[in-house]
């Protein structure tokens, strides 16, 4: 078995994959495992609807199957965790979803967590998943910045909106920690945390951290 963790961006925007790759840099440790970030070419530019989520599952599973013999683990780098449970059925390797991992990490950082979504339409989908995880009572709130995945590359507009939303989650909703609700937000974590004054979880980092631990410990 390879020692490579494959981090799969299920949308086709390579700039998002590049940001994910940079976010993974602190987790590349001497002695491995290797972390390789990939773009799902068949995916839409951004995964923003339930239809988008459902549409990437089949090509995502094909890619997991193609890579299984070379993989130590997989991370699905989309906050909707598309195909997470199907992938876990399809491979014997560990499969981590960034939404599940990001929220679980936030639960260790504060009593109540908030989520920064990209669009208002994303929120009902996230709430269904949070309910399925059984942690709705720990959710302080979820608010959207009103930008789609490709628009997140506009640094000045995106960071300002994320800071505003994070402070609203903190001050109005009572969040003790915030989870960024899109892999395309990865580049803003440190600046957002400094401005908000509470822990900010970049969910791909959370998932890859868990994957590294599982690979190194043989779980």
Could you give a short description of this structure?
With 219 residues, the protein is an alpha/beta fold.
CATH class of the largest domain: Alpha Beta
Q: Estimate what percentage of residues fall within beta strands.
A: 15-25%
Q: How far apart lie the N and C ends?
A: 14 Å
Describe the sheet with the most strands.
4 strands, parallel
Low-confidence stretches: none
Task: Give Rg in angstroms.
Answer: 16 Å
Number of helices: 8
Question: How would you sum up the global shape?
Answer: globular
CATH architecture of the largest domain: 3-Layer(aba) Sandwich
3D structure, described in words:
This protein has 219 residues and is of the alpha/beta class. It has two domains: 4-98 and 205-217, 3-Layer(aba) Sandwich (Rossmann fold), CATH 3.40.50.12500; 100-202, 3-Layer(aba) Sandwich (Rossmann fold), CATH 3.40.50. It has eight helices and eight strands. The strands form two sheets. Strands 2-1-3-4 form a four-stranded parallel β-sheet, with helices on both faces. Strands 6-5-7-8 form a four-stranded parallel β-sheet, with helices on both faces. Helix 4 (98-107) packs across helix 8 and helix 6 (155-171) packs across helix 7. It is globular and about 50 Å long. The chain starts with a strand and ends with a helix.
Using brief descriptors, characterize the structure shown.
219 residues; alpha/beta; Rossmann fold; 2 domains; four-stranded parallel beta sheet; 8 helices; 8 strands; globular
Task: Give me the secondary-structure topology.
Layout: E1 4-9, H1 14-24, E2 34-39, H2 50-67, E3 71-76, H3 84-90, E4 95-97, H4 98-107, E5 113-117, H5 122-133, E6 139-144, H6 155-171, E7 177-180, H7 189-196, E8 200-201, H8 203-217
